[in-house]
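Please go through this protein, sequence plus structure tokens, and consider how the sequence yields the tokens. Keep your notes short.
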Amino acid sequence: MADDFHKPTQYSGDKFDTYEGGEDPAQIMRVAHDTAHALIDRARETDDPAVVDRLVAFTDAHGIDAIAELWARSSPRSLPGALWRIYLLRVVIRQDPDGTSYLFQRGTEVLATIDAAVAGASIPTGPEEITDLADQILRGLFRGDFGVALDRAAAFCRIEAAGCTSAADDAEATEPARATELTTRADRFALTADELTACARLYRSGSLE
């Protein structure tokens, strides 16, 4: 990847699939897949932990727009599509750790599944814990079991979706606009969870390209 990237850009929590890339779809897809595979290979071949640290924190220095230009238009069921979504989740968490952790905690209280255990966040989950979870998941893509990292990200999204839905129900009577915003966000989190779960299945079958 080149060194000349845009400065960090604020990216709102409900923008999961709206980034517009270049004009040549074939070239975009080729570059997306090549860079995604090169990134994973580099992370897994190095013994230098500083390299992985820099990859995890890449968007802190360069912003999400640099990655979006490479991967945002990729199929959601592809390696670059999976990387894009997990990097974007990390940005969403870091831009609003208080709100994200509140919705996550709310989700764990209303969701009767094992998703909290799969996600692996410390309980109770405050802003510091939710930020650490984002780093753990991304680091797991580079150094741990790739499929497990995808499962953890999907579980996080399902919990956030449940938290958004619960908070939207509370806001419906007094803050209808807020309720609508939360419902829309819940739908996007739920969709992203499905996409990441599909990527995990493809990875385990050797079909995630």
Residues 176-204 form the longest helix (29 residues). DSSP finds ten helices and no strands in the chain. Residues 1-22 have pLDDT under 50 and may be disordered. The radius of gyration is 17 Å.
